[in-house]
Amino acid sequence: MLENVELEKAQELILSEVASLPDESLPLLRALGRVISVDIFADHDIPPYAQSAVDGYAIPAGGCSLYQVKERLLPGEMPASPLGPGHAAGVVTGGPLPDGAEAVIPQEAAGLSGESGEFVTYYEEIVPGSNVKFPGEDFRKGDLLVRRGACLRPGIASVLAAYGRNEVAVFSRPRVAILGLGPDIVSCHETPAPGRMRDSNGVLLAALAQRDGGQVTGVEAAGAGSSFQVNYSLQRLLQLSDIVLTTGGTAHGVRDQAVSIVRRSGADLLFWGLRIKPGSHSGAAVCGHKLIVSLSGNPSACAVGYYLLVAPVMRALQGLDPYPQRLSAVSADAFLKKGGPRRFLQAVAACSQEGWGVKILPGQKSSMMRPFLSDCNALIDLPEGHPPIEKSAEVPVILLNCLCAVG
């Protein structure tokens, strides 16, 4: 087991144990928000034939100002014959055009004459192709419609529906279980006795996992159970899940138990301890083909540990690039602390006309929950021994995009 490792080494060790999950076929609407597992190609042109873009009159090539209306097509009707010189056909938006049609005169621009409006007059210049949707204008047969790894968004679902794709192959959702450690921790549904506290980290991790496409199979607090009982809980959660997250008990205090519990499960420890703040008391192990990631019991440290260690796994299990986007942004605030280990600050990043900016959230201590009240979507990555951050300084930022925010 490696101890006190660099973040990138820890990520490498964890991701080396991860392979994308098998796929499953789901009805189109049930698959919304899921990650598509295969490339999808167009099996025919869209539109499949020339269509009118407006309600009006299809006309043939050749200069003319008076056209005889040979037929008036209703929605769903196909033309009976091609257009000859001086002929027109009434058409509807999205309806098929007769062979020989060069353009469509909008209904509101056409002049009708004759007892039953059987003639159309139009004195403007006819621009070939005006108000016409050509075959394959949207998509041609063989076009790549959706690439493996795309998130099934409403627009993609609409295109697939146009091709009659009632089902779509998507990666299975990672199954995630959470086990809170520590004799002083009780379920969030309980009223804690003096000296004890509710398990808020379990709900935090479950919500983050669901946001990242996971399926939560259990959230439990071990409480004051015996080592046998805690090991039994861990083994049961491993059977139900692809990844188990433990929170709390990761330091080296007298009651800290995470390392011993993970070892007792038969798992092989990958590393324990990171050279970062917050989240230095984090570790990971592999038990068979299942991952165990142990995170700090301090709320902010737990969240940062999830962003840096667990979120990449969630993405890799769903066939995505595990690494988040990095960029530079201008800090709206000052941060006066300096030095120490590599530090990650919870923040909110946004892009404006001036470029990317980032606001440091209040409450950056490992033990604080105050940042959770804001929509944290970024971490500021400060190197070891960093100087204080001045207001308007440019800082390196990691974007914490949720699954379907990534294109």
Give the gist of this structure:
Helix content is 17%, strand content 31%.
Write the layout of secondary structure elements.
Layout: E1 2-5, H1 7-15, E2 23-27, E3 40-41, E4 51-52, E5 56-60, E6 66-72, E7 87-91, E8 101-106, E9 111-113, E10 119-121, E11 132-133, E12 144-146, H2 154-162, E13 167-171, E14 175-180, E15 185-186, E16 197-198, H3 200-211, E17 215-221, H4 227-240, E18 243-247, H5 258-264, E19 268-274, E20 276-277, E21 283-287, E22 290-295, H6 299-317, E23 326-331, E24 342-352, E25 355-360, E26 378-382, E27 394-399
Parallel strand pairs: 1-19, 6-7, 14-17, 14-18, 15-16, 18-22, 20-24, 23-25
Antiparallel strand pairs: 2-13, 3-12, 4-11, 5-7, 5-8, 6-10, 9-10, 19-21, 21-22, 23-27, 24-25, 24-26, 26-27
What is the CATH superfamily of the largest domain?
A: MoaB/Mog-like domain
Number of strands: 27
Strand order of the largest sheet: 1-19-21-22-18-14-17
Structural class: alpha/beta
Distance between the termini: 36 Å
Radius of gyration: 31 Å
Sketch the major β-sheet: 7 strands, mixed
Please name the CATH architecture of the largest domain: 3-Layer(aba) Sandwich
Q: What general outline do the C-alpha atoms trace?
A: elongated
Question: Helix fraction?
Answer: 10-25%
Which regions have little confidence, pLDDT < 50, spanning 5+ residues? Answer: none
- CATH fold topology of the largest domain: Molybdenum Cofactor Biosythetic Enzyme, Chain A
* CATH class bucket of the largest domain: Alpha Beta
What is the total domain count?
Answer: 4
Beta-strand fraction estimate: 25-35%
SS summary, helix count: 6
Average pLDDT value? 93
